[in-house]
Amino acid sequence: MKLSKIQRAELKQKFNGHCAYCGELLGDKWHADHIEAVKREIEYVGNGVLRTTNEMLRPHNDTLENLNPACVPCNTNKSSMSLESWRHMLGHYRDVQLLRDSTHARHLHRFGLIEIKPNPVVFFFETFGGACQ
Ligand SMILES: [Zn+2]
């Protein structure tokens, strides 16, 4: 859907100007992310593997309520995954891929310069309006 200037400004303020997912303060460049995808859905199936499901267009998901303000990296990384799929994939980045695929990260980890936290993957909007309001 094409948002009016006012709708876009309101959407940006949905979480006080922060990205709904990572919590970064949004600058001039940000995306209106469909929480539930409108186009064909991508699913994270585990072990770093993404799969396209056979679901086709779902125009009923193209509503204002289904939009979240997102920074460009979050919107790009989430792509058309569901939140749970994306959450699973982010966990896999941390638990498997980071130290396996990045020599730099492995060295920094060996020297105790980076710490990998076992926390669950929580999106900013899931705690927004809790303790801080
Ligand atoms: Zn973000």
From TrEMBL:
The keyword tRNA processing does not apply. Keywords: Endonuclease, Hydrolase, Nuclease. InterPro entries: HNH_nuc. The keyword Cell membrane does not apply. One of its GO terms (molecular function) is endonuclease activity. Residues 6-76 form the HNH nuclease domain. This is HNH endonuclease. It comes from Acinetobacter rudis.
